[in-house]
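TL;DR need structure tokens for one chain.
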Amino acid sequence: MTEKILHAFEAGRRGKPDELDTSIANLISSYFLNINPLARFDVRVSGSFKQNKPFVHVSGEIQETLLHHPIEKSIKHVILNQYNSVHKTALKDIETEFNFKPQSTPLAENTCSGDSGYPLAVAYKNTPYHLPWERFLAVEIRNIIDTIYQHDGVVPEWLAQHCTISSLKGLRADGKIGVEAIYEGVHLDHLRSITIATEHEKTLPVEKLRTDLSKLITTYLQLLEEDHTLHFGKPTLHINTLGDWNEGGGWQGDEGSREAKPYRDGFGSHGCLEDSFSGEDPTKPSATGSFLARNIAVNIVANNWADFAKVTLTYTIGLEEVGINIITHETGKKSQQELELWAQKKFPFGIKEAIDLFTLRDPPLYKTFAETSDFFHNPQYPWNNKRIKIKE
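>> reply
TL;DR here they are.
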């Protein structure tokens, strides 16, 4: 009998402190790359409240040439716009503090990997976007709730027409969604639970919040079951289990950090946990290596070479050599050695080449990171697409 395994994923809503910090870090990255596409940086963003007003601390190591530009005023403007957009506010100013330090010259001038790391990514053959179900569902449910909030309570038409609920007014921006999935081997056995915590207005009683969200999520799962001809089982829905959440959301109740939840970036429940991707220039392997690993995994399953692929890469700071490990949990049509040799032949493993492959120095790309609030849920990103035709 095949052992069953739990995989879980948590998606923060866009007003969750570390999620907001992450989006700001990506927008700052876009700004720096606009100044200099070859810029090196590692930006840290931490938001809080002081004297009942938002306060943001921005620090990190950046290439010294960036310090020669009047960056603080522009970054403050970026932060203010993002805060107002996420929280639907109209603040005219936001208090900020900067503590940038020049990145070391040898690191800034290094043309190889800017850090050591063990990025990994997975892909499934028959799932939306080739994503693990727990990750897809957590992010998609988060997106549904955020869309309802941003549109003043209006439920998306495609969902409302299948449900008795067309409006859910009174949501706020903070919250998170966790999904637990049980697999038998690489195949989904059932969903164990879906946990939702969301801030809301006092005008939206927690009982109504629970009832309406339960109906919306249940309807959404039924639609997916019909589309994909599968059965999720009967997952337990936990919605605001602590009761009302009418205050203390966002930075007001919790200090964020873009480094606080690195698993929201990668595939933490499938193995190694890399650093947070956000706020780093693309020479760091956390993001670039994960994108490359993801593209290799997607190509393997999209070309029917396996039902599942997990790709792990190994980077050493200052060196060009990259190690690779591919496992398919015995679903592969080729051996592990054959798959690894194929990947080494077909894909550019060097950091510079991977940056070029995915155009990771493109400033608008980092703005979309802030908008989508996820790196693998968007099928338009090239690393989530089948880019290379495998030769039989």
